[in-house]
Every structure is written in C-alpha cells, then in structure tokens.
Amino acid sequence: MNNILEISWVQSVISALLIAGTILSIFTPEWEFAQFTSEFTVHYMVGLLGLGLLFLSLNAPRLLFISFACCASLCIFLKNASNSHLILPDLNLEPKISIAHVNVGNIENGFEELDLFINEYDPDILSLQEVTPEWGMYIQQELRKIYPHQNVHVRIDPYGMALLSKSSLSTKDTFNYGSIPNLMSGVMMGGREVMIFSSYLYPPLGKSSTETSKEHLDVISSKLSTYKKPVISLGDFNMVYWSNVIRDFRNETKLLNSRRDFTPLGFRIPHDHIFYSPKLECTEFKEHRNENSEHFGIYGIYQFKTQQNVEDIKAALGYLEE
C-alpha cells in the first residue's frame, strides 16, 4: 500500500477525487445523483477524517493534509448551515414557547406512541403532518383535551396537517401552493404575537421536483415577508438543512436553524426542521427517537431575545431623547 501511495499520479488521482467530492458536497448541482449523495455529506466528512488518519499511519503527508483540509471545509460548511451557537443560549426572563413536530405517517405503534411523546415533552404547540381522517378523529376526540385550540387540515394524501395549541390562537389561516396546503397560526407570547407556519414539501427527486420545492419555498417566503412579527417555520421539508434550496430559503427569509448538528445513525437523514426569526432564541432542541432508535420527531424551546426588549423600550421612549 505504501509503495502505491508513493506513486505521484496515484496521489494526484486520490487528491482530485477527495477535492471533487468536497466541492460537489458544498456546491451541489441539480443532478438527481448529486442531490441524493449530498444527503450523506456528514458521512463523507467522517470518512475524510478516517482517511486522514489512515494516510497518517501510511506516512502519506500530502494525502493526509488534503483529507483533513477537505474535512475541515465540510465542518465549516455544515456549521454555517446549522445553528451557529456552540452552546445554546441560557434561559432569560422573556416569554417562552415549546414546540414539537411529528410526522404521524412515520408512527408504527399508533396513537399510544404519540401519547408517550406528548407526555414526555408536554409542548405548548404540537405540529402534526400526514394527518389522515383517522388521525383527524383522534385529534378531535382525544388531543382536544390537551390542545383545545386547533388549526387542522385533514387529507387522505400526505398533505394533511395540524397545529395544536394549549393557548388560544390569535390567527388561523391556510394558504396553498397549488393543491398543497400550508398552515399559519398566531400565538401570543407574553403579549407579543408569534406566527407559526407549518409546511410539507414534495420530496425533490430530480431537477423538476427541485424546482417545485423552490417555488413552494418562494410562496412561503413571500407569505412570511408580509409579517413584521417573529416567525417560526417548521415541517417536513424533505431536504437536509445544508441543501442549496434550504440555504437559499433561509437567506431570503433571514430565518435561523434550530439544529446544531445531528448524529448519523445509519443512513436515514432527518428532513424535518424548525427555523425561527432572529428576534427569537432557541434555548433547547432535541431530536426524539423511538424505542427502535428511529427518528420520530423534533422538539424545541424558543424565547424572545433580551436585547429585543431593550430596543422596544428605546423605541417607545424615543420622543424623550428628542
């Protein structure tokens, strides 16, 4: 092995492949295969780290440097696409809200499994997607005891969804992208309204469906821009958070990512996300797995930034400064 790696052209080929893989992971073209492989960028990054250690043991310094440089590039790329806080903000005295999101189409053990999830996290807002008529009856008959305020859109296809709240909803609305609904509800946090958007995007399986996802996100972005209030946008986006489409959406809306990272267990990558306005802070984010260690749902806690309160006071007392 050492003899092979000492050949100059072999090192050049390996280096080119490592660099090309890194570039395609960061600047992913709209090819179906490239879109698919970009799902495993984290796995590729870990593989680069392992290759670097292998090249270290084989005394191949050039390949060692390139492997670690590519690994570091992907680390920076993924961190920029996730929550930038190395440590989540501390709790302050500002109003808070807890939100959980679950795609009930992934639940294997029926209503009891969702009940256990609710009992464990007790979220103020519960977002459900792929709500079929059967789940709609359960929501009306059972979950109304916990969440009396509901915005429910039942469908027989995957686009049924619900936003359930313990406190009253100041606003309830539905807007469509084609035949696909998006739910919007306003909730009050300490006298200030926060808009919650729930969306389900069609999985991008090629260039045409990627364009469909972009157009859908453009509709959501346009709707978000009509509100000057803090916004939380969540749902099954059916894309990893470092995808070009999601990053363009976040750049357009200025929303932040709740996820700081994820631990790859196998090859199933989470596609559900919670994005939030810069006026808010995410103080806790968890990815819940069922007893089989399969992805079940996500949960986050959000609060107003203390600085925002200071700015509101300054604005209210601005006439005194004049």
Description:
By secondary structure, the chain is an alpha+beta fold. The protein is built from 11 helices and 12 strands. It has 2 domains: 80 residues, no CATH class; 215 residues, Deoxyribonuclease I, Chain A (4-Layer Sandwich). It has a 6-stranded mixed β-sheet. Strands 5-6-7-8-10-9 form a 6-stranded mixed β-sheet, covered by helices on one side. Strand 1, helix 6 and strand 2 form a beta-alpha-beta unit. Helix 2 packs parallel to helix 5 and helix 4 packs antiparallel against helix 5.
From the alpha-carbon coordinates, what is the Rg to the nearest angstrom?
A: 22 Å
Q: What series of H and E elements makes up the topology?
A: HHHHHEHEHEEEEEHEHEEEEHH
**Average pLDDT for all residues:** 86
Strands of the largest sheet, in order across it?
Answer: 3-4-2-1-12-11
Major β-sheet profile? 6 strands, mixed
Tell how many strands the DSSP assignment holds. Answer: 12
Within CATH, the superfamily of the largest domain carries the name Endonuclease/exonuclease/phosphatase
Task: Please outline the helices and strands.
Elements: H1 2-5, H2 8-26, H3 32-38, H4 41-57, H5 61-81, E1 96-103, H6 111-121, E2 125-129, H7 133-141, E3 149-153, E4 161-165, E5 169-177, E6 180-189, E7 192-200, H8 207-224, E8 231-236, H9 244-253, E9 256-257, E10 272-276, E11 280-289, E12 295-304, H10 306-316, H11 318-321
Parallel strand pairs: 1-2, 7-8
Antiparallel strand pairs: 1-12, 2-4, 3-4, 5-6, 6-7, 8-10, 9-10, 11-12
